Amino acid sequence: MKKFFIPVFFILMLVITACSTHETEKSVGKESKKVKDELITYESENGPIKVPAHPKRVVLLSGYAGDLISLGVNIVGVEEWSKKSPLFKEELKDVPTVSDDNVEKVIELKPDLIIGSSTSKNLDKFKKIAPTVTYTYNKLDYLTQHLEIGKLVNKEKEAQAWITDFKERANTIGEEIKERIGQNATVTVMESYDKTMSILGKSWGRGTEVLYQAMKLNIPDNVQKVTNKEGYYTISSEVLPKYVGDYLVISKYMDQDNSYQKTKLYKEIPAVKNNHVFEADAYTFMFNDPITLDYQLHFFKEHFLD
């Protein structure tokens, strides 16, 4: 009798274990699907919109790659300018380039969230593919913009933590720089691209937010005046000396015409003669996301203080 009882006992145990495992797998499967399908309401600039609580496949039609990368959000399609930043090279190396002209390519990427600009084309079509959220460039200040991206992808706490830390670090470095160069010293930021030259205001990427807002260095009065409306001001190289302060930061495209730097007019600018010119790679310096801002802060610390 004992010989018969033992196998039956084990058979019963196997059946019970199998049933328990099956129920656990069903429960985990349901929970996994629940997490996958969970939605939150995001208050966009165009009104409330339902978006994934945990987006897994984001397509970017505008330059917020650094924001998402810093928050650990997966990108499956990105606009061309972000692909050009060396700071995102590793994370975006296998990510296809997309544009608002190619709706079919975006469809193929099966996004669960699309982020674009208020000026992006074909928005009505993109909204049929996945929840689509747009932002108006410079409507929000650069830190609030990152916080909004954090809210959108359900990582507000992480975004706020970085903002708090960045503000403290930038303020400390800014004070050190002002002690070194003088409280009243002025800094101009300029960029030359495709046969045009522009001086930049307080919130146009290229390190302007770090210099003028985070570190509170001084922008020349005439630069502030002409850039106040659009954020930048296009000039000719002949009038550049008029707008250059005590220091000049050049967001420089090495693949563009930079012959103005060989002219006598440029070489006679006091900032140039005093070796107060800092050149940064324009593709690296372009954006104002956490990754780029941290790079810019380090760049300015090195160039102003070393």
UniProtKB/TrEMBL annotation:
Keywords: Signal, Transport. One of its GO terms (biological process) is iron coordination entity transport. The keyword Transit peptide does not apply. One of its GO terms (cellular component) is plasma membrane. It is a lipid-anchor. Residues 56-306 form the Fe/B12 periplasmic-binding domain. Residues 1-20 form the signal peptide. SUPFAM superfamilies: Helical backbone' metal receptor. PANTHER family: IRON III DICITRATE-BINDING PERIPLASMIC PROTEIN, IRON(3+)-HYDROXAMATE-BINDING PROTEIN FHUD. This is ABC transporter substrate-binding protein.
